[in-house]
Amino acid sequence: MTPGIIKEMTNTNMTTEQAIELLKKIVKPSTALDEFRHFDLSLVSVEERPRYQAAIKVVAHALKTKEITQDFFEKSVTFKD
Question: Which residues are within 8 A (CB) of 77 and not within 5 positions of it... i.e. 6 or more apart?
């Protein structure tokens, strides 16, 4: 990961907890048979998307730095039961 991307992620005023809460709003099951849950940015307006994209970056950084675990994240955003 380049230093610019890390700087961009850490410059946001959003906490990991806030990012997770925001991302819960765009979790959608796929239409495939497995109904895999995923983030769907089409559920929010174009104007709101940068905020959701920033939340994804915050969570990615938290996962990379081991602030949170993958399992905790997936359960928190309802990817897993």
Answer: 20, 23, 24, 27
Helix axes 3-10, 49-64, angle to 10 degrees: 110
- Which residue has 């969570």 as its token pair? 59
Taking the model in full, what pTM does it have?
0.76
Dihedral through CA 58, CA 46, CA 77, CA 34, nearest 10? -130
Q: How far apart are the C-alpha atoms of 39 and 79, rounded to whole Å? A: 9
Q: What is the greatest pairwise CA distance in the chain?
A: 40
8 A C-beta contact, residue 20 and residue 59 = yes
The Cα–Cα gap between 27 and 43 comes to 9
pLDDT, tens digit, 9 for 90 and up, residues 34-77: 768 888 999 999 999 999 999 999 999 999 999 999 999 988 88
Residue with token string 């928190």: 76
